[in-house]
Amino acid sequence: MPKKAMDLLTESMFYVLMAFRHGPKCGVEVIDSIDRLTRGRIMLGPGTLYTILGKFESEGYLKEVAVEGRKRTYALTEAGEQAYQQELARLHQCLSDAERSDREEETEDENQDNGQDMPLLSLSQL
Amino acid sequence: MKTRTTDRTCRYCPFPSYDVEGLQCWLEDQAEKGWFLRKDGFFGPFARLERGTPCKCRYRITALLNRTVEQDRELHQMTVEAGWEWVGNHGDFSIYRTADPTVIELHTDPQVQALELRKIRIYFLILAGIPLFNQAWRYWTLAKSCGPLTALLERGTLYLCIWFFCELLCILVPQLRLGRQASKLRHGIPLTEASHWKQGARNQTIYRLVVLFLLMGMLNAGFAAIGSEPYDGSLPFGTLEELPALEIQKVEWTDAEIRSDLLAPQILTVSQSGEFILENGEAAQCYYYADYYHTESYGVARRVFREREEIVGGRQGIRLTELRDVGMDRCSYGQGGTSVLHLLLRSGKDVLFVRLYFDDQWGLGLEEIPFDLETIAAQLAESLT
Fold first, then answer.
1. Which of A54, A87, B1, B378 could make an S-S bridge to B67, C-beta 3.0–4.6 Å?
2. Is B109 in contact with A50 (Cβ distance < 8 A)?
3. How far is CA A82 from the centre of its chain?
4. DSSP symbols for B71-107
């Protein structure tokens, strides 16, 4: 059965959930948190951030906990935590599959190398 | 010689607000030529631009529907603080620009931007679907009372066809365009560069011209269909004066209107009121209502006749008697209640429906029609041939 849109989180979405695991945050704090977590690798644009926040709020992953003027603070819900853990497990699985694939490839290479060290027998020796 | 420099201009913009990719490219192209969008510079398909120093300027467009009003305000504040300048809204989209290449992009995740466009697609579909649903419901209501083909003739065949086609275009074209953009985004391709945007501009302009042409045709067809004119020419069928069986003493008033349709080049509606004398010497009134269709083909005439026959004979429960050997393809008559006579005639491509109401001097329906119904039907048939 094909996965629905919210079953697959993009990298930006995953890091937004990750940022909220460390406590309620407003938009600016999320961007700063992701910048720090990824050491500047991921910079979230405001359009992307607020689309994600709006989507997560409608999906029940986030809930609004405080309003100070224009600043709105959100917190992760249980559904959001569950979505984060599912995605983390999926990424771990991908990583372990990749590592296993690398090990299998190394083993095949070793077997091939061992095969090349065997001397060729001449017909008279057979 | 002094040359006059213009600081402001108004230009036709080929891209609608939902064509994010094309609109961004067009605005950036204008900026490279030294023309910049003024605050809230869009009105319809035109953009008000002002002179500036030509530069490589980035324009970015974001949809307004995906967030609450408060979230939109927060986004706006953050975007401006990030170094973007808000230029205004265009439809359901906000436009920002910056000449600083170091300012972070508004959208850094194309797949998330695709989610934004998805909601816009649904919104546009509902927006365009409402008039279609409204028109379909109105047609269906009319068709229930008089039959589908007759309803077409009443509302205007050409008008409805053009309207329907126009509405389909207005639904499909934005959906296709938004879908194509969303597909690009889902594949991780941002909408920041489009190599064939000029071709897209030509296509959009052609589409707009087609819709404009259709709208003009629709207006024209609409006026022809529903705008009936008074008619004082000779009628191709008999009225109260030509029905001696009714013994009309005087015709008090006559009203005749003519209009045309794609399927029936001549449609006449006639109403009359005439006075006659009852056996007891009292005056009575006869009201005559005729709907005449000179149709385009025999098939259309047959179909229109059948629809009316089903309504009169079926739905209204009036027992219709067939009259033969009167020179008609079909001739039926039936009495509705005690004081209404329905006459249905078809000859070749012509169809005639007549209703005769018989009232006493107080405006109440007579207890019985004091004339021979078959004779009236035969005389009407004779007048049509």
1. A54
2. no
3. 14
4. HHHHHHHHHHHHT-EEEEEETTEEEEEES-TTSPPS-
Tell me, what DSSP letter sits at residue A47? H
Contact B245, B178 (CB under 8 A): no
d(CA B106, CA B94): 11
Hey, what are B283's tokens? Answer: 């005056």
Q: Are B340 and B312 in contact (CB under 8 A)?
A: no
The encoded tokens of residue A34 equal 């992701």
Size of interface A-B (CB pairs under 8 A): 80
Query: What band does B5 get if pLDDT is binned at 50, 70 and 90?
Result: low
pLDDT tens figures, A13-56 = 999 999 999 899 998 999 999 999 999 999 999 999 988 998 99
**Tokens describing residue B265:** 């080049």
Beta strands B330-336; B250-259: pairing state: unpaired
Instruction: Give the Cα separation of B162 and B164 in Å (integer).
Output: 5
Q: How many CA atoms lie within 13 A of B4 on its CB side?
A: 2
Phi, psi for residue B63 in degrees, rounded to 5: -80, 150
Min distance A88 CA to chain B CA atoms (Å): 19
Beta strands in chain B (DSSP E): 8-12, 35-43, 46-51, 58-63, 85-90, 93-98, 229-230, 250-259, 266-277, 283-294, 321-322, 330-336, 340-347, 350-360
Enclosing H/E stretch for B232: none
Residue B99 is which amino acid?
Answer: A
Q: Is the ipTM of this complex over 0.85?
A: no
Longest dimension (CA), chain A: 94
Q: Chain B: residue nearest A6 by CA?
A: B115
**Cα–Cα distance, A48 to B110 (Å, whole number):** 8
